Amino acid sequence: MRYSQEHNEETRDRILAVASRLFREEGIAAVGLAKIMTDAGLTVGTFYTHFKSKEALVREALRRSLVARSECLKHALRTGDLEKAVRGYLSPEHRDQPGVGCPTAALGPEVPRHPRATRQAYSSALDLSLDSWAEAMTIRTGKKVGRAEAAAFVGLLAGTLQIARAVPDHAESAAILEAGARAALRLARKE
Amino acid sequence: MRYSQEHNEETRDRILAVASRLFREEGIAAVGLAKIMTDAGLTVGTFYTHFKSKEALVREALRRSLVARSECLKHALRTGDLEKAVRGYLSPEHRDQPGVGCPTAALGPEVPRHPRATRQAYSSALDLSLDSWAEAMTIRTGKKVGRAEAAAFVGLLAGTLQIARAVPDHAESAAILEAGARAALRLARKE
DNA sequence: ATTATCTATAGATCTATAGATAATGC
DNA sequence: ATTATCTATAGATCTATAGATAATGC
Questions:
Q1: Which is higher by pLDDT, A1 or A122?
Q2: Phi first, then psi: what are they for B26, rounded to 5°?
Q3: H helices present in chain B, as ranges
């Protein structure tokens, strides 16, 4: 059947939204197209009308979730300060909601296993967040903070969140989040 | 056929060695038993003589690779100092050899998607490294450093390595490793 | 006339099991 | 007699494609 361009864009968008959530929840390799399409209210055969391949979907879903997170971060930094953003990142809520959380924390090790185009998309979309963190850190420390330094800062946040997610003991997990926040704020402190 | 107990232990050990490398290189979900068994010089049918399920293999392989890494870390701390251990962790060699590297950097986000027994095995084997880092940090800073604080430290190392692996640009990747090492050493400094 | 969707399917792969085989531990 | 290994296969799933259908954009 024929549909309006608007309908088609909405469908594509719905597939992307479902995929970006499922990938973060279950991992890219572990999620099949059938599950994504079913969750989007379609059958698997329709997938290739909207995307060239699963890899093309991965690339777009990564980009989409990274952009969304950078908007979220910008909002947190606009309405609060760096400490608030750090506490939000290393919160029990973020730990328990990987599907709408940071793509690096959910998929970090999977990215390098994908083709260069996917890594490129990841890297350039991550830069949006890195630049926001770098700016907030520059303001806070009074010294110019660059992208690489911001990447290490995000590395601390994402790596700590991963460990807090992996550790089964509740008290330990909470202590790790707290220690991560203290470490992050120490890195963002005036020397 | 019947084999000696020694032969059987060697076979099981070979399967574990192959699996712990492949899991780190390609991800747990992406590696099939057939590939593991072929690499170990066996056919897939033999797998279930040695392990109850793929999940049992995952649990053991995680434990094995975490123990090996903690031994590696202990050696680095015995023959050098914390700075040497940090530089080794955030080195181009470690970045380019995930198959023999840190399991947290290679598999961090996958662990929480596995059953509690697997997360338990991960957590208790990770403690070996956390205790070593905590001890080295205690000595260096002169203040008692606990496991949670060490977990945030490992989070910084693992998260930064993941980003350095994901970023396709060589110079950027190298700069991220360097920034990560500086940040780690700052966290391990006397206040 | 176009085309998004559906059903159906190809061909590969996944985890797990069954049954035959043959070498050797106890 | 035991049992590690092999071959074969079950049944589910994976990505991707083919062809029919039917609603509607241009």
A1: A122
A2: -115, -10
A3: 5-26, 33-39, 47-50, 54-79, 82-89, 92-96, 103-107, 116-141, 147-166, 170-187
| Predicted confidence (pLDDT) at residue B5 exceeds the cutoff of 90 | no
| Mean of pLDDT values over B184-189 | 96
CA atoms within 13 A on the CB side of A107: 35
Any chain B CB within 8 A of the CB of A34? no
Query: pTM of the prediction?
Result: 0.97
Most B CBs within 10 Å, among A26, A62, A110, to test the B interface: A110
Nearest nucleotide by C1' position to the A34 CA atom: D14
Which bases of strand C have any atom within 7 Å of the beta carbon of a protein residue? 1-9, 13-19, 21-26
> A139 Cβ partners below 8 Å, 6+ apart?
A82
Give the whole-angstrom CA distance, residue B50 versus residue A175: 38
Structure confidence at residue B1 as a pLDDT band (50, 70, 90): low
Residue ranges of B 11-30 with Cβ closer than 8 A to chain A: 26-27, 29-30
Scanning B111-140 for CB atoms below 8 A from A yields 111-113, 116, 119-120, 122-123, 126
pLDDT at residue B166 in the model: 98
Contact A19, A39 (CB under 8 A): no
Compute CA distances A97 → A26, A45, A168, whole Å. 12, 30, 16
